[in-house]
Amino acid sequence: xxxxxxxxxxxxxxxxxxxxxxxxxxxxxxxxxxxxxxxxxxxxxxxxxxxxxxxxxxxxxxxxxxxxxxxxxxxxxxxxxxxxxxxxxxxxxxxxxxxxxxxxxxxxxxxxxxxxxxxxxxxxxxxxxxxxxxxxxxxxxxxxxxxxxxxxxxxxxxxxxxxxxxxxxxxxxxxxxxxxxxxxxxxxxxxxxxxxxxxxxxxxxxxxxxxxxxxxxxxxxxxxxxxxxxxxxxxxxxxxxxxxxxxxxxxxxxxxxxxxxxxxxxxxxxxxxxxxxxxxxxxxxxxxxxxxxxxxxxxxxxxxxxxxxxxxxxxxxxxxxxxxxxxxxxxxx
Length: 333
Ligand SMILES: Cc1ncc(COP(=O)(O)O)c(C=O)c1O
Known about the structure:
By secondary structure, this protein is of the alpha/beta class. It has two domains: 2-25 and 260-332, Alpha-Beta Complex (Aspartate Aminotransferase, domain 1); 45-258, Aspartate Aminotransferase, domain 2, CATH 3.40.640.10. The chain has eleven helices and twelve strands. Helix 1 runs antiparallel to helix 8, helix 3 (77-87) runs parallel beside helix 4 (102-110) and helix 9 packs parallel to helix 11. The protein is globular, with a radius of gyration of 20 Å. The structure holds pyridoxal-5'-phosphate. Pyridoxal-5'-phosphate (PLP) binds at residues 76-78, 101, 103-104, 136, 140, 161, 163-164, 182, 194.
């Protein structure tokens, strides 16, 4: 058991795979187990889940810099990105980073838009003449950071995927048109939680493609019959919730929102750059380290990592320690 930032985690030594799946705090895991136990006894009714959905929604907003009224809930990133893709004019020109995660890029291609891939660092310079730039704040494959200041200055509509960033990188993304993110990695929540924060103008142009009872102006009075009566705020875009997933997110996300973001950032990037220094590499300022090394020695040393784009990916979160760094260095020595 490890303690970090006031929470306890049943995370094994050498666990450096948060970029694939985060380990919940014991509080988050307990909340979900208790909810499953109540379900197994027939002790809960659907309205019980309204509060956790609202709590997690508001906390996601605080983490990325958006008010709760402009945050919609979903289950996956791709499903929420598909709303954005469906809201662009036919044949829109969408600029993406080569190698970005496909849940961010496929929905635009599947919709028939013209999707252009360029190297991550070229996005700001190439943004003009595009209807949208869609990019991950932190690249899944190797942890590289997008140049957000330059993208903002480019003045083109932007969709940011904060999945690999929210939870360790301090974010102030109120300038972006759309910000999407999922809970099951760095936000240490169950899979089945995702959110889409919209600027006021972006919300007005986002199609409520998954219109459902929960997206109604008053969910418990919009379960039957037309006319269509969707919420005026971002709830109009809601997918009806994966209940037990939001129970966990309602514990994890307010905790993240309450943390000293600079301290979390210093801890995670400090460990990652500490590993890089031990390997003779310059600092990169990312919690994700991508190495051109064979995975076998790490596996044998009990390091949990993942292989992405032919390289080993190691992710340092707030429950990671210097012992984890040393374990990797010993394995690669
Ligand atoms: C940047 C990024 N976006 C999204 C996802 C997950 O997508 P989805 O929620 O559609 O499964 C991942 C998972 O690795 C990711 O790295």
